[in-house]
Amino acid sequence: AFYYYQMDQLQCVRSGKWKLHLPMASKKRNWGKPEGKTPLKLFDLTTDIHEDRDVSAQHPDVVKRLLTLADKMRYDIGDLDQAGENQRPAGWVDTPQPQLLTKSRTETAK
């Protein structure tokens, strides 16, 4: 399975051809205000790569399986204010410095 996080928020779970958008009270975005409440949605990516047709009602077994995977991931690495059992702190550099390539690989190999 593949888990879609936006910062510290688990938003989707993908397994095989299925992608489940998890229901959220407030969905985080890259920029701007959160989207607000979003419903649970299931998509079959083999027939709907654009994610236009929610098929969750037709496949409750798939929804249940992917929700179980989401719960396991929440327990493992967390979700929003829920710390995970194996969650690490975000990386941090006190005094970041740009790392620039000043010579090509061929020049450094000589």
How many runs of DSSP E, i.e. beta strands?
A: 4
Describe the main β-sheet briefly: 4 strands, antiparallel
CATH class of the domain at 2-77: Alpha Beta
Uncertain segments are none
Topology as a string of helices (H) and strands (E): EEEEHH
Strand order of the largest sheet: 1-2-3-4
Secondary structure layout:
Layout: E1 2-6, E2 9-15, E3 18-21, E4 41-44, H1 60-77, H2 105-109
Brief descriptors of the model:
110 residues; alpha+beta; Arylsulfatase, C-terminal domain; 21% helix; 18% strand; extended
Walk me through this protein's architecture.
The chain has about 110 residues and is α+β, with helices and mostly antiparallel strands. It has a domain at about 1-75: 2-Layer Sandwich (Arylsulfatase, C-terminal domain), CATH 3.30.1120.10. Helix content is about 20%, strand content about 20%. The protein is built from 2 helices and 4 strands, in the order E-E-E-E-H-H. The chain has helices spanning about 60-75, 105-110, and strands at about 1-5, 10-15, 20, 40-45. A 4-stranded antiparallel sheet has the order 1-2-3-4, with helices on one face. It is extended, with a radius of gyration of 19 Å. The model has no long low-confidence stretch (mean pLDDT about 90).
Overview in brief:
The chain has 110 residues and is an alpha+beta fold. It is built from two helices and four strands, in the order E-E-E-E-H-H.
